[in-house]
C-alpha cells in the first residue's frame, strides 16, 4: 500500500498488516462502486473495474494503491504550488476555528474575502477591479453569462444575447456553460441547446487546420472568423466573445501571436464584450500572472478558479472591469444571483495564502525565466520522435501532438486511441499526462524541478517508443 499509510501509522500503534490494508482498500472500492457516481467517467466501466484509490499527495506526486506517480497534470491544472503544503492546511484550520462560515448575502462580508478581492484586483491587468466569488470555474462562467445579459439590458440593448464561442472550447459543466463548449459530444446526451444562444467559430488551432498558411496568417484568419460570425448574425445581437487564451482542456491549443490582438480589436470595433476564461491560465501558468499579458490583450471580464487556491479549496471568481461593474451597479436593485458559499471565509483565506506563496517564492517569474524555458527546451526534443508532429509550449502548459504522418500533419483515426495508449504507457512508468484526442496535455505544478522535467521527458520518450513499435508491428 502507499508510503503514506506507513507514515501515518508510525508512533505507538503497530503498523497495519498487509491484510488490513487490503481489506481497507477493498472497502473503499466497494462503497465507491455502489454509491459514488463520478464526473467524466463511464459509470459502466466503473462497475466492471474498481476505481483507483488515490490517498496521498506531496510536491509533484500523488500516491495510491502502492504507486507514486508524478502528476504532470497538477490535478487538472490546479495544484500550482504543489501538493501537501502545510501553510495552507494551517490557514484553513485557523480560519475554521475563528469563523467556520458565514454567507456574503445582503451586504455582509468577512476579512479574507475583502482582502482577496483587493489582491485579485491588484494583480489583474487593466481595469479588472471588481470580483464576484463562486465555487467552480463553471459557476464563474455561468455568473459571467448572467451578468452579461443584465449588462446589455441595463444598457438598453436586450437583443444582445448571442455568445460567440469556439470549437474545442471548454467552459464548464452547467447547462449554460456546456452550451459554450465546443464539442457536440458535450451537448447531445443532455439535450443542451446552442441554437440562438451560442455560435461556435473556428479555433486558432494551426497544427490541425492551418494548411499551407503560416501560423501568423492562420491566426489572423481565425480571428476574422469571429468577425464574419458577428457580421452574419448582426453585431446588435452579439453580447460577448467567450474564450480561453489557451484552449487547454481539449488540446493545449496555443494561438499564433497574431490572434489575440486582432480578436480584441474586433470586439472593440463592434462594442462586444470580451471574456477571457483564465480558469487554467490565470495566476501564472504562462509565465505572467495572466495569459492576457502573455498574449497582449485586455478582456472586459475574466474568470478564474483552479490556481486561485491551487485546488486546496473550491473557489472561483469572475473579475469585471470598472466600466462593466459600474453598469451593473448603476441601478438600485438587488442582484438576484449568488451562491450560499460565495466568498467562503476558509476558501478565501486559503486562496490568499496561496497567492502569498506564489509571490514570496517567485513561482511565476521562475516559469518565465527558469523552469518554463527548461521545460520547453527538453520537451521539444520529443519532436524528433516519429510519432510526434508538434510540441507546443507556453510557460508550464504543453501539448504533444501525435501524428501518423509528420510531413502532412495527418492524424491517426481518433477511434484508434493512440494518445490513450501513450498515456497508459506513461502511467506504467509513473507519469500522469492527459490524453485529449491525438494530443497529450501537460501542465505540471509550478514547483517542478529540472530533474522531474527530465523524468517526464524520459518517460514520455519510452512510452512513445513502446506504442510506435506496437503500431509498426500491427
Ligand atoms: C478553461 C476552463 N474553464 C472552465 C472550467 C470549468 O471549471 P470547473 O470544473 O471548476 O467547473 C474548466 C475546467 O477544466 C476549464 O478548463
TrEMBL record:
- Keywords assigned by UniProt? Aminotransferase, Pyridoxal phosphate, Transferase
Keyword Transport on this protein? no
The keyword DNA repair belongs to this UniProt entry's keyword annotation:
no
Task: Quote the Pfam families the UniProt record gives.
Answer: Aminotran_3
The entry sums up its family as follows: Belongs to the class-III pyridoxal-phosphate-dependent aminotransferase family.
Q: Which PANTHER family match?
A: AMINOTRANSFERASE (PTHR43094), AMINOTRANSFERASE CLASS-III (PTHR43094:SF1)
Name of the featured protein: Aminotransferase
The domain of life is Bacteria
This entry's Gene Ontology molecular function terms read: pyridoxal phosphate binding; transaminase activity
Enumerate the cofactors the protein uses. Answer: pyridoxal 5'-phosphate
Listed NCBIfam families: PRK07480.1 (NF005682)
Gene3D superfamilies recorded for this chain?
Aspartate Aminotransferase, domain 1, Type I PLP-dependent aspartate aminotransferase-like (Major domain)
Amino acid at each position: 500500500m502507499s508510503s503514506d499509510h506507513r507514515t501515518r501509522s508510525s508512533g505507538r500503534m503497530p503498523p497495519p498488516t498487509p491484510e488490513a490494508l487490503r481489506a481497507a482498500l477493498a472497502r473503499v472500492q466497494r462503497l465507491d462502486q455502489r454509491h459514488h457516481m463520478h464526473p467524466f467517467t463511464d459509470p459502466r466501466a466503473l462497475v466492471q473495474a474498481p476505481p483507483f484509490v488515490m490517498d496521498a499527495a506531496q510536491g509533484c506526486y500523488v500516491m495510491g494503491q502502492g504507486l507514486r506517480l508524478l502528476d504532470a497534470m497538477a490535478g487538472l491544472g490546479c495544484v500550482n504550488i504543489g501538493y501537501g503544503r502545510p501553510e495552507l492546511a494551517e490557514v484553513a484550520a485557523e480560519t475554521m476555528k475563528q469563523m467556520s462560515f458565514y454567507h456574503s448575502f445582503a451586504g455582509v462580508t468577512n476579512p479574507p474575502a475583502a482582502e482577496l478581492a483587493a489582491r485579485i484586483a491588484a494583480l489583474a491587468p487593466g481595469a479588472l477591479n471588481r470580483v464576484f466569488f463562486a465555487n467552480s470555474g463553471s459557476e464563474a462562467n455561468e455568473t459571467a453569462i448572467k451578468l452579461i445579459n443584465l449588462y446589455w439590458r441595463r444598457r438598453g440593448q436586450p437583443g444582445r444575447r448571442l455568445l460567440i464561442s469556439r470549437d474545442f472550447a471548454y467552459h464548464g459543466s452547467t447547462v449554460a456553460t456546456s452550451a459554450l463548449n465546443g464539442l457536440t459530444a458535450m451537448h447531445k446526451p443532455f439535450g443542451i441547446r446552442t441554437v440562438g444562444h451560442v455560435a461556435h467559430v473556428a479555433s486558432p488551432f494551426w497544427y490541425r487546420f492551418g494548411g499551407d498558411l503560416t501560423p501568423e496568417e492562420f491566426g489572423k484568419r481565425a480571428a476574422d472568423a469571429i468577425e464574419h460570425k458577428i457580421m452574419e448574425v448582426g453585431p446588435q445581437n452579439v453580447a460577448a466573445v467567450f474564450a480561453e487564451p489557451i484552449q487547454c482542456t481539449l488540446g493545449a491549443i496555443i494561438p499564433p501571436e497574431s490572434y489575440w490582438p486582432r480578436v480584441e480589436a474586433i470586439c472593440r470595433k463592434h462594442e462586444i464584450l470580451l471574456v477571457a476564461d483564465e480558469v487554467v491560465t490565470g495566476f501564472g501558468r504562462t509565465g505572467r500572472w495572466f495569459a492576457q499579458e502573455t498574449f497582449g490583450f485586455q478582456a472586459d471580464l475574466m474568470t478564474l478558479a483552479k490556481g486561485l487556491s491551487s485546488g486546496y479549496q473550491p473557489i472561483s471568481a469572475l473579475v469585471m472591469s470598472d466600466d462593466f461593474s459600474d453598469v451593473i451597479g448603476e441601478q438600485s436593485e438587488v442582484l438576484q444571483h449568488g451562491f450560499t458559499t460565495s466568498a467562503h471565509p476558509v476558501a478565501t483565506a486559503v486562496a490568499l495564502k496561496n497567492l502569498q506563496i506564489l509571490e514570496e517564492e517567485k513561482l511565476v517569474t521562475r516559469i518565465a525565466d527558469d523552469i518554463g524555458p527548461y521545460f520547453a527546451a527538453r520537451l521539444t526534443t520529443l519532436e524528433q520522435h516519429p510519432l510526434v508532429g508538434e510540441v507546443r509550449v507556453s510557460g508550464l502548459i504543453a501539448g504533444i501532438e501525435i501524428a501518423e504522418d509528420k510531413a502532412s500533419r495527418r492524424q491517426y483515426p481518433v477511434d484508434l486511441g493512440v494518445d490513450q495508449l501513450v498515456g497508459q504507457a506513461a502511467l506504467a512508468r509513473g507519469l500522469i499526462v492527459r490524453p485529449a484526442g491525438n494530443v497529450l496535455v501537460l501542465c505540471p505544478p509550478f514547483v517542478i524541478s529540472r530533474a522531474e522535467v527530465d523524468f517526464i521527458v524520459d518517460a514520455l520518450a519510452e512510452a512513445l517508443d513502446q506504442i510506435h513499435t506496437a503500431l509498426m508491428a500491427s
